[in-house]
């Protein structure tokens, strides 16, 4: 005689719990493979962008400070025949270079002051007001740096190549050190402008995600 088959009855609640646990297991395993900052979903993504924002501000501080110091200390004397007859090239001989030094010094100071506000975005990813404030300030400082860099680049171009129509001769063959310092400063300043563009795009994307 065959034994009666044993029928196992499962409660509907227990079955639903088991199926949900099996469904969430792959999601939990997938989250373990993600970086720590991205495991909490949207907040983790915002926190990750805030960390990148903080690091980019630290990275942009170097070029702006270097550009201000390099141009502000650009000073070269060229002796002709005797030491009593000299040509002198200083940054404050050109209004564009003075504006360039001031703009980069302001940008460097702003980057330092903006670090605590950027750190707030790491601690509180949903703080939209701080991000909007930094976005507006970043736009203003980027425009200031762009204007100063363009003005300084025009002077550097004329110093290197001159202008035949205006009868301006290039001076970089004589004032090589002065031109080298100012040219490097202009390149460093435009690198900082690129970093500000990235910061602005990141802040705009973060604010848009929060409002959507």
Automatic annotation (TrEMBL):
Topology in the lipid bilayer: Multi-pass membrane protein
InterPro entries to which the protein is assigned, alphabetical: CASP/CASPL, CASP_dom, CASPL
Keywords annotated in UniProt: Cell membrane, Membrane, Transmembrane, Transmembrane helix
TM region(s), chain numbering: 54-74, 94-120, 132-159, 185-207
Main location: membrane
Subcellular location: Cell membrane
Domain Casparian strip membrane protein: from-to ranges: 47-194
An annotated GO cellular component: plasma membrane
Keyword Transmembrane helix in annotation: yes
Subunit structure: Homodimer and heterodimers.
Family of this protein: Belongs to the Casparian strip membrane proteins (CASP) family.
NCBIfam families: A_tha_TIGR01569
Entry protein name: CASP-like protein
Species per Swiss-Prot/TrEMBL record: Digitaria exilis
Phylogenetic classification of the source organism: Eukaryota, Viridiplantae, Streptophyta, Embryophyta, Tracheophyta
